[in-house]
Amino acid sequence: MIRFYFHPTPNPAKVALLLEETGLPYELVPVDTSKGEQHAPSFRAINPNGKVPAIIDTEGPGGREVRLFDSTAILIHLAEKTGQFLGSPEDRPELLSWLLFLASGLGPFSGQAVHFQYAAPEGLDYAVNRYRREAERHYQVLNDHLAGRTYIVGDGYTIADISAWGWLDRASRVLKGSDDPLAPFPHLKRLFETVDARPAVARARQVGKEHSFKRVNDEETRRALFPSNYPPAA
C-alpha cells in the first residue's frame, strides 16, 4: 500500500494522475500546507524539505517502507514499479532529459511566476516580468519540440506528459490575465488537451475533494507557505 501525502497543487496532482492511471492502491494523507502541516516534525521525517508530494511505499512481503519525495522522483519510482508510462528502453535518455527540464525549468519558473503575480508585494515589476517571461520561454521550448509529435517522448504517453500536465493545468494563473493562455502555443495546447481528456484525469481531479483544505490567504497561510520571508523566532 502507498501512503500519498497530498495537497491540491500542481506537483501532487501529477502523482495523483499517475496513481489513477496505474490503478495502484493508495491511502491519501492530506497535508494542509496553508496551515503549515508540512513543517510538522512527523512530516519532515518523510520529506526533510517540507514540501508535498511525498509517498511511503510499503514493498515486499517483509513490508519494507520506502520514502520518496519530489514529484519527479515519485513519478519515476511508480512508473518503474508498474512498468508503465516509461516509453521504450531507447527512449530512456530523452525521457530523463525532459523530466529534468520540467522539474528544473517549467515547474519552478511557473511557480515563481504565480508567486510574484499573486502573492508578492506590489512594485516588483522586474521579478514579475522575469519569471513570467521565463515560464513563457519554457512553454515555447516544449511547443517547438511538439511540432509534428503527439507526446513529449517517443510515440506514446509517458510520465513526461503527466509531469507537464500538472503545471499546464494552471496556465491561466501562470499567464495571468489571459483567457486562453495556451493559444500562442498550439502544439503544447494540443498535448494538454490530449492528456486532459484521459479518464484518469477526471479521477485525479477528485482526489482530496472530501477534505476541507484551508482556502483563506491570511497571515498564518503566508507564514506557512513562505517561511523564509519571516525572521526565525527568538
List strands and helices in order, with pairings:
Layout: E1 2-6, H1 10-22, E2 26-30, H2 41-44, E3 54-59, E4 64-69, H3 71-82, H4 92-118, H5 125-146, H6 159-168, H7 171-174, H8 186-196, H9 199-206, H10 219-225
Helix pairs in contact: 1-3, 1-6, 1-9, 4-5, 4-6, 5-8, 6-8
Description:
α1 packs parallel to α3 (71-82). The protein has 234 residues and is of the alpha+beta class. The N and C termini lie far apart (42 Å). The chain is globular. The mean pLDDT is 96. It folds into two domains: 2-84 and 203-218, Glutaredoxin, CATH 3.40.30.10; 89-198, Glutathione S-transferase Yfyf (Class Pi), Chain A, domain 2, CATH 1.20.1050. The chain has helices at 10-22, 41-44, 71-82, 92-118, 125-146, 159-168, 171-174, 186-196, 199-206, 219-225; strands at residues 2-6, 26-30, 54-59, 64-69. The protein has a four-stranded mixed sheet, covered by helices on one side. A hairpin with a 4-residue loop joins β3 and β4.
